[in-house]
Amino acid sequence: VSVIVLSGTGDHFCSGIDIKTLKSITNDSGDRGRSGERLRRDIKSLQDAITAIERCRKPVIAAIKGACIGGGIDIVTACDIRYCSEDVFFSVKEVDLGITADLGTLQRLPGIVGFGNAMELALTGRRFSGQEAKEFG
């Protein structure tokens, strides 16, 4: 293997985290302590999976089409190179769900698009195009 290309199947790269799964993690037990610890472990596991992309010793290319939302941005910011189709749009959607973009977006995005742009995107959750992403850097 000399290079790894990540792409989505169907019309979109990634629609973000599965909200039903996220809810089941937090609602699985009447014991808030155990539920919170399980959520912490599951989020840490997801963080580690995305960090593995960043640490990969082979070049990792993101081939992005359609929607790249939430966790999709976590994934593409961990890649070495990002290519977009003309129809692509991005959104750091976590703010609209009342959760933190803590799988890597807040750590990696400022290094790609600059701190001010990253904060504006993370705090508004607005959609932005591939062209705008290219202009950001």
TrEMBL record:
Recorded superkingdom: Eukaryota
Family matches, as InterPro entries: ClpP/crotonase-like_dom_sf, Ech1-like, Enoyl-CoA_hydra/iso
GO molecular function per UniProt: delta(3,5)-delta(2,4)-dienoyl-CoA isomerase activity
Keyword list, A-Z: Isomerase
Protein's UniProt keywords contain Cell division: no
Gene Ontology CC: peroxisome
Keyword Isomerase among record annotations: yes
Membership in a protein family: Belongs to the enoyl-CoA hydratase/isomerase family.
Protein name per its UniProtKB record: Enoyl-CoA hydratase/isomerase
UniProt lineage: Eukaryota, Viridiplantae, Streptophyta, Embryophyta, Tracheophyta
